[in-house]
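INFO batch 0412 | record 1 of 1 | parsing
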Amino acid sequence: MRLKEVLAKRTNYLTVVTDQVVDPHNISAICRSAECFGVQNIHLIESNFPFRGAKKIQRGSLNWVNINRYDGEYKTQDCIQALKAKGYKIVAVSPHAASKSIADLNFDKPIALVMGQEQNGVSREIMDAADECVIIPMHGFTESLNVSVACSIALFDLRKRLEESGIKWQLSDHDRDELYQQWLFDSIKRPDLIIEHYHKTIANK
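INFO prediction complete | emitting tokens
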């Protein structure tokens, strides 16, 4: 069954954070890439323009991932604290402050990969709180990639090396079973009618 095949490749060992990314097309493309590479949770630190999604870009990917949103005055701090409480290493992707290639990043802890805002990059607040900063090596005159392209390249590299690492990166049995039930429910048209029929059948017994 396709759902179980996909679940077997899902992971929470990698997660993606968008740091006040503005363009909904970029956020949608990041969500799509994350879903393609089996990342189950995405953390959105909202910009001044809350994310609404771009259907032509995300291609239904938001139906299969968990979106965790942070807004308000302390949104960045709230996101960082939530991730660190779960044991994540905060890794900022920045061409301006990093000396380590993403290829040299190790998997000693689960990784929260932070992608910065289009114009200004990763915020100072996150840079100060980050455990590591990495760069995607480039060999041309242009100094940076589009944020969604950078995320795709980073996830491709990390996912490949994670699978080769010998680390248990798969979802726990509990998380996998819970997600399976959620996906089944979401895949059914008008599940409310099925639930209503079930309760009526039980009541009439």
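INFO post-check: The longest helix spans residues 147-164.
INFO record closed
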